């Protein structure tokens, strides 16, 4: 059963789309190109500012997935559920994984922490 990452982020401030192409140079100097994927792999960088309780919950989710080992579901929000602010997303759900095996946090005053999480789409 796939779990869902449903923690509220401040913004998804970077997105990207990537392909995997092999370029082979032949003896004549020409090139042969092969695409290894049938669709692009997307990536999102999410920014968070959370208190100790929320931060611990996100860290537990990260550790339960063993970093980038296990995939999960995530929805790219079109609208913030509380403020109604445009979040820039498309409202679609994606199967993703963490991009790194390490989660770093900046400790601020009053128990708040700032951190970023990069999610990578898992192509099935």
- Name the structural class: mainly beta
* Number of individual domains: 1
The mean pLDDT is 88
Estimate the global geometry from the Cα principal axes: elongated
Unreliable segments of 5+ consecutive residues: none
The number of helical runs is 1
C-alpha termini separation: 16 Å
Could you tell me the number of beta strands? 9
CATH topology call: Elongation Factor Tu (Ef-tu), domain 3
Rg is 18 Å
Question: Main beta sheet, described?
Answer: 7 strands, mixed
CATH architecture grouping: Beta Barrel
Share of β-strand residues: 35-45%
CATH class: Mainly Beta
In sequence order, what are the helices and strands, one letter per element? EEEEEHEEEE
Fraction of helical residues: 10-25%
From the structure provided, what is the oligomeric state, counting identical versus distinct chains? single chain
Quick overview of this protein structure:
By secondary structure, the protein is mainly β. Helices cover 10% and strands 41% of the residues. Strands 1, 2, 5, 6, 7, 8 and 9 form a seven-stranded mixed β-sheet that branches. Strands 3-4 form a two-stranded antiparallel sheet.
